[in-house]
Design goal:
- By secondary structure, this protein is α/β, with parallel strands linked by helices.
- The chain has one domain: 3-Layer(aba) Sandwich (Rossmann fold).
- Helices cover 43% and strands 18% of the residues.
- The chain contains eleven helices and eight strands.
- It has an eight-stranded mixed β-sheet, with helices on both faces.
- It starts with a strand and ends with a helix.
Length: 267
């Protein structure tokens, strides 16, 4: 990865593959590594894939005080411009999907097509994580046992069957251990997520939009998918049955197929 100057900060970014540009925007507490090589390798065959770490994450500039989803969207816009990319296909997942919503609203010229995965728009009808599950995750983080905290996150992010696979878990543990995200950064990202509400503005999104959501998502329940898709003019909804929050881990081939088809129609 390489540092790219974006306004007053630097973002750690990697470009790979060939084809039309595809910007991937990661979610809360995630890093560029969390996209996973199986998914990225499939995308590289058809796209120039651009991944990066948010401010406060990895080698990107430190987070200085509070942030917001709108500020993180400006980071994404600034990164595309710094890379001299006129317009890109954009996939944002979870918090990254919220960032992608703000990006599409503030900078419609930068998007060829938009894919929103396992995300949330705020407002009536939306839903965040069940409070009991949230407490479980918080208790694991507060335990001081890093592997326990990562395991709790893993079990919340994927379906039970996928979580039980030892190879899957080992890969996630390795990725999460190689590039850690500070608790203070996660706390600021969480505050930004809680303040996010684009529900009254999604009708203004011009980019052709695909919404993907797993029906077994415990982080952002599946009801968010139809809600987001219903608020964006012409958006198409794809529900993945029995799949958890990290749908691109559980179904990398299907996820890549959906992106390629959506990008191809809206080239």
């Amino acid at each position: 990865m390489a540092l790219v100057e974006v306004g007053q900060i630097e973002l750690d970014c990697e470009r790979s593959g060939s084809g039309p540009p595809l910007l991937l925007i990661m979610g809360m507490s995630g890093t560029a590594l969390h996209w996973g090589e199986p998914f990225l390798e499939l995308l590289r065959a058809d796209f120039e894939v651009i991944v990066y770490d948010h401010r406060g994450v990895g080698a990107s500039s430190r987070l200085q005080g509070p942030t917001s989803i709108a500020e993180l969207a400006e980071d994404a816009a600034g990164l595309l411009r710094a890379l001299e990319i006129d317009a890109a296909h954009v996939l944002g997942i979870s918090m990254g999907g919220m960032i992608a919503q703000e990006l599409a609203l503030a900078h419609p010229d930068l998007l060829r097509a938009l894919v929103l995965g396992c995300t949330y728009c705020g407002g009536p009808g939306s839903a965040l994580m069940d409070p009991g599950l949230l407490r479980r995750a918080a208790e694991a983080r507060a335990s001081g046992d890093r592997e326990r905290a990562i395991r709790a996150s893993w079990e919340l992010n994927v379906s039970p069957g996928f979580a039980a696979g030892q190879q899957n878990w080992a890969r996630f543990l390795d990725i999460s251990s190689r590039r850690r995200v500070a608790l203070a950064v996660i706390a600021e990202q969480s505050r930004a997520v809680l303040a996010h509400d684009t529900s009254a503005r999604l009708e203004q999104i011009e980019a052709p939009t695909l919404v993907i959501h797993g029906t077994a998502d415990q982080i952002l329940p599946v009801q968010n998918g139809p809600l987001v898709a219903g608020l964006i003019p012409g958006a198409r909804l794809e529900l993945l049955e029995g799949v958890g929050h990290l749908f691109f881990w559980e179904c990398p081939e299907r996820s890549a197929e959906l992106l390629l088809a959506h990008a191809g129609v809206h080239a």
